[in-house]
Every structure is written in C-alpha cells, then in structure tokens.
C-alpha cells in the first residue's frame, strides 16, 4: 500500500493502482473517454489518447493522464484545478472541432459518450475551427456500419478486436489528420475476415461503429397487408430488454416482451427457444453418433455465427469439427416456412420472419444463401435488442405497464434447457441434460450441472454418465476459443464436446444488447436471470418439449434422420 493525497484527502491504496483507480476509491470522479476497464476480461484500454483525464501532480511540471499514471507513496494530486479543467475542456473541444454535429439524427443520440462528456464539462462553444474529415461511410456488410467521420481514435475497438477476439481486423492507418482506424488497406468490411462479432460496436463510445439499422424494414413488412409477419426472440433478449426501459439489470421481461411484440402488430410471436430445443435434439444425436461410430471428436457447437465465421477464416482446416446443426433461429425460421406454413396453409413466400437477436453477426448469418430452403430465406430480417427497444419507444408503448402475455402456439413452447442457451455454458448443459436421459434411459432428477457454469473465459468439466466420462470444454470470447482450437490442431485436445460463444458471457453479452461492455456486473446479473428463468420452467430438458415431440412424430420423422438432416443441417466452408 501507498499513501496518496487526492484533493486534500489522504488515502491508502494498493501500490499498483493508477491515479484514476485511487480517485475512484477517494470518491472523486475524473472524467474519462478512451479509457475502458474490462476487469473480468483482464483487458484495459489505456491508450491515454484522449487526454481527458488530465490531473495535477505536485512537483511535476506537466499534467498527468490519470488513467495511465501509477501512484507512488506521498503523491499529492489535485484533480479539478483550474489548469486541469482547462486542459480537459481543450481536449474535448479539439475532438469536437473535427466531429460532425449532427447529433439530432445520430444513431447514438443521447447514448453517445462524447456527447455526454461535452455536456458534463458544460461546453457551449468550440474555440477551435477544425477542418472536417469526409470519409466514405462503410455499409458494405449486412451487420455493421463503420462511419470513420465519428471516430475519436480512442482505439477501444482495436483493443476489443485484437486483444479479446484476436481477430486482428482493426488498426490505425495513416498519420496525423488523416489517421483512421480500419482494416488493412482500408478495405470494405465485407472483404475482410471480420466475424461481425460486434465487440468493436459494443465498446465504441460514439457512432463510429454501429449495427446496421433494420428497423425500417420491419415497419415496412408490418404495414404490408400481403405479408404474414412472424417474430421470434432469442433467449438473451428477455433478460436485457428491460434495461432499455429503466429496469434493474437482471430483470426478466419475457411476458412484457411478448405483449409488446403483439402490440407492434406481429401475426405470430414465437420463441427462438423452440428452435434451441430442436437444436439440442439434433446436436445430442449427432454427438452420440460421433462417439459411438468413431466420428470426429471433439464436436463443437455451431450456433454462434461469429464463431462459425472465425473458424472458417482462421482455422479452415478444422471446418469439419463443428456440429452441422443450423443455429436455433435459422432452424425456427426454416420450420416457420415449412412445417408451420403447411399446417396453416400459408404461402411461405408471403411469410416474413423477423428475429430479435442480442447479436450483430446474426444479421450476416441470416443472409447466408446456403442456409435457404427451396429458395426461401429462413429468416428475412434480424434486429438487435437495442433496435427492438427503439421500435417499442417509437410505437409509444409504455413497456413497464404492459401485462405479461404468453408466446403463441406451437412454436412458442420451450423448456428451461433452451433458455440457458443465452449464457456461456448453457448450450452444452442443455445437451448434457438430454444426453443423460438418452444414455441412461432414466429420468434425470438433478438437471443443474453446476460444473458447466461460471463466467471464466475457459472452463472444463468431466460429466460421468453411465460410467462413461464426457470431457467438456467451454470457451467464450474468440481469443479463448483460439486457444482451444490450437490445441485441437496440434492434437493436444481430448475433449468430446466444446461449446464456443464469441461474446464474453455468451449471448447475454452480445454486441446488440443494451450497451454494457466494460460493466461485468451487468453481464453477471443477466446470467443469474437466465438461470432463474430456467428454474421457473415446468419442463427443463429439450427433448421433453411436447411440441418438439409432435414436430418429429408428425413431420420430421427420426431425429438426425433424412428429412431432419435436409432441413436442419448445413456445412461449413473455408
Ligand atoms: Fe444466442 Fe442462440 S443462444 S446464438 O447465444 O444457439 O444471438 O440469446 O438466439 O440462434 O437459441 C444469440 C442468444 C440465440 C441462436 C439460440 C443459439
Ligand atoms: Fe473485429 Fe468483431 Fe469488430 Fe469484426 S465485428 S472488426 S471481428 S471486433
């Protein structure tokens, strides 16, 4: 420990602290902009590039950036001297002098960290008249928009992409006034190996990186009398959507979400969780086949599209190891346009399937042509949790006052196993629940597999079923996934199955969720809520879902059989 004095207040803090951390302890708020502490991910963006956190340190001629300056014993710090405040304001004014002022129509209006800071510092005039950059806006991908004009060079995206996700897409290019952050040769994003994981979008403080905004397409479909519009919601939405309406983190809003969707005018409100239950039936069968028939092991889960894109780009020699199952929302989209359309006698060409996803990569996944069946896209439009929140507000719906309503039948029926898909460890736990019953032929009494739960980026567990040890690996965050893949490549891996999710925390931590990156507490509250929702379900094992059983009996035939394979499986290409 060392003693430091912050604004006349002496405190003791650990030796390795920075001035910024010490000031938090002293109850003093130093404004920051580029700084981002992702504690649980062991990542700190501390480029000290924005110069907003400048403070005075006694006996030092120059101001010091609080985020990157370590404390030492006897240090005397003044955080809000006239000189520090002036320097801080000047840094922000310089940023603003080269920043578009179209806040009113900006995607981050009222949710922009630069805007909030300008307000906090009471900036009412900009003393510097800067030249404005006019960079081309990159909307080449289905998933994200890159508007370099709004970039403040904080480099958070670079850190997230390179250090957490190890994708290496974004880095600083050019020099001086021409500096930008982008892919090598400033290629359009669609021509890069970007996985669309959205980690960069999640950490961007401004609108330099945002999701592609597809709300207008949904309104258009809803207002077209010729269209039959079906919506489905991912497991992770129900534990995060409430945050956009001022509710506490970890609030479960399943019933209100369903009400809101009905009021928005969707013809059917279905649950991606039904698709997840079907995924488990298929994936668990596939794993049993691989184990019993000497197939390729480990089997990797394949429901996370950013992860699938990562393996295709970065480990093309390993594309035969993921399960061939399509992801739950694509499976549900397929079933809506085949099984449900036939049942209801609706022309699938008239059906529009909208997926509400916590994820940006799902937008690009839905556009993959190899997933279509009989020339129909399975999913037509994907909007994020944030976009759904925007629609509810635009429609004037008072979310907090909505009654709780139930999903529609039959594709709204789901089990607790499918709810936990939304958190890291959940997909594999759901698979283990089903495998356990299949391998023992007995009812599973204890459905909670605590050994598979947690928030550490890399985990493993051995689950014994009928005397057979199943060795399971779990990774979330693509950097962690890379480690497991390198072990597989070098023959060091001895797992039977591995679950991988691209986003830290799993889908609850997705790039399309209410902004949360850098706040581990929020992801943990959402995770607790997911497990609570699972406990609240009457049926908690996927193959016990009665509507899933009916689907196989009346339509698909055998799980992992010919028809199921044709409709519900795909292949991956380098
Ligand atoms: Fe997920 Fe999914 S669980 S990827 O994390 O598998 O996005 O929530 O919808 O499809 O079910 C996301 C979340 C899903 C899918 C499901 C899977
Ligand atoms: Fe990197 Fe993911 Fe952003 Fe693509 S979406 S640039 S892979 S962080």
> Helix amount, in percent?
25-40%
**Overall number of domains:** 3
Q: The CATH topology of the largest domain is what?
A: Rossmann fold
Q: Please, how many helices?
A: 18
CATH 2nd-level architecture of the largest domain: 3-Layer(aba) Sandwich
Low-confidence spans: pLDDT under 50, at least 5 residues?
A: none
Top CATH class of the largest domain: Alpha Beta
Q: How much of the sequence is in beta strands?
A: 5-15%
- Please state the overall shape, judged from the principal axes of the Cα atoms: globular
Distance between the termini: 53 Å
Task: Report the mean per-residue pLDDT as an integer.
Answer: 95
> Nearest-angstrom radius of gyration?
25 Å
Structural classification: alpha/beta
Q: How many strands in all?
A: 19
Bound molecules: 2 iron/2 sulfur/6 carbonyl/1 water inorganic cluster, iron/sulfur cluster
* Main sheet specs: 5 strands, mixed
Order of strands across the biggest sheet?
A: 2-1-7-5-6
Protein name: NAD(P)-dependent iron-only hydrogenase catalytic subunit
Domain 2Fe-2S ferredoxin-type: 1-83
Domain 4Fe-4S His(Cys)3-ligated-type: 83-122
GO molecular function: 4 iron, 4 sulfur cluster binding; ferredoxin hydrogenase activity; iron ion binding
